[in-house]
Amino acid sequence: MLEYAFRGLLNGTVYALLALPMTLFFTTAATVDFAVGAYALLAAAVATAIPGPVGVLAGLASALAASSVMAVVYVLLKRTSEGGIRVALASFGLSLAIASIVLMVWGTKPFVRQTFMTMLEFGGLRVNPQGLVNVAVSVALVGATWLVLQRTQLGRMMRAAAVNAQGAELAAIPVIGVQCGTLLAGGLLGGTAGLLILHSSGMDFTASLGLTFIGFAAAIIFGIHSPLRCLAGGLAIGVIEALSAGYTSGMVTSMLPSAFMLVVLLSGQLRAGRYSGDRP
Amino acid sequence: MSLFGSRPNTWIMAGVGALACAVAPLNPVWLDSVILTGILALISLSAGLSFGQAGILSMAQGAFAAIGAYATAVCSTRFGLPAWAGLALAIALPSALAWGLARMVTRMPELAVALATLALATLLEIVARNWDAVTGGYVGIAGIPPVEGFSVGWRFNILVWVFVLLAVLAYENLMRSAHGRALNIVRHDRTRAMADGIAVAPLLSAMLATSGAMAGAGGWLYAHYITYMSPGSLDTHASISALLMAVVGGAGYILGPVLGTFLLNLLGKLLPAQEAQGLFYGGALILILLVAPAGLLGWLQALADRRTARRARATSNAAAPAAPAGPAAQAGREADNPARAAEPAR
Asked: Which label site among A22, A183, A206, B165 has the fewest CB atoms less than 10 Å from its CB?
């Protein structure tokens, strides 16, 4: 029981890292980037092709490049229409395209890499040291994002763009620029998550949509407005997933992220009128 | 215009369908592609109806089709019922589910609807993978008999296109009815529609139910054509493809989804490798969203409008050649508003 919960916590920190881009982009641009899972997939695929720390850098760079494609598309889309749904559709297209490129170049083989051969033991708990690395990286990144949002000029601009885009624009805040920056940061965060997953449980070319799902579920479960809630949401999903993997069938485990998302959405999160631009 | 009467889209569809039925049997490979294109067009039409008209970005159309396919597969393999009995079930089950889903989601903003339908589709797919007793789990259900009287390829092809034609006819009739006009107001401004006395939620639910029925019929055709149904056959990717084809062709236009399916599915056959399909589809979607947000048909209509406006300007110039800049400038202004520029009274 304790072991499952602990393992779930370790996984959950990575999910928090996937949830973070969702939260950031949703609060600053009121739409969803479905390609976050694809950035993670691309980073993992590129990192397997190139050995050593260069591979890690190349993975991150490729994720950043992919998200900059998304940023360009975003800017162009914003010129013609206001609707956030088109951005979401376009990010779907990008996600499909990236998954297809990965399939073409790397084939169907799974990506996984083990860095540590030995397991650490803490009073009966066997832990892969990679898990601790994951926790350290994720917590550091979530903390850094929180600090940036709350304590810096950039963070204030982001929060202003989130609360009232028009007002922020009138206050000379480059809203589109802030939103693009958020997309790029999302690429880096997603890429980092992909690298961490590559070094722990691994993934294959079908993973992108599933990762996006887990990220979104973790982002909305406690409300989509704060990076700290992302961390809590990621941990919660990780723990519940690990517990259900231990005590129930695989079916329940694989249904969890979607079921969570459905329940949270149906319970009235993202309520009509608040974000959709509808009349009140 | 009088040639097409009051149902131009149906007539165009009848012509295209007849052409498809006449040309496709010349080559077995074409026949297979054309049949699959027809089935996909039906599912894509359902996505067009829900997204383009009702504004519900449903990512569960593939799941609705899968329910239809499983329903008829179970009926015909387990109980030995005829295919037409399966059709009733294949239409009733998905539309009931779609109605229930719509009752829950119509109050949400469109992004939440997209996510909720996607989540539901994923859940249904997982259920199909694991419910061994009914769906056969990962292995699926094999040996679904073909529809009696339509087991030959070319006959089945005709059946498929008759279904598509019926769907287009129903769709066009719907859009010309009071319900269709109400739907246009809802899409334009929901609050205004409520003030006009339109029961928005039941209307949208009925639309999604209709679209679910269309998708279910597509699934029925699919199951009886392929004669095999597994969780991977009509999965989330099928839902996304159907939506993508509708958007590429023009989701707001009745024939947009059919055009999109034709283009993407037939051009997709020319790709060097099956793996490149996602790249092609995704690239096409992004390109269309950037270049022609209303889809290919919307783009064509904009072109035609511009042409009409130019011709109107030319005739007004010719009619008053001696007049100074006044009328020409006026015509130029009118060109910005093609509907007015085309009015013959001027």
From this structure: A206
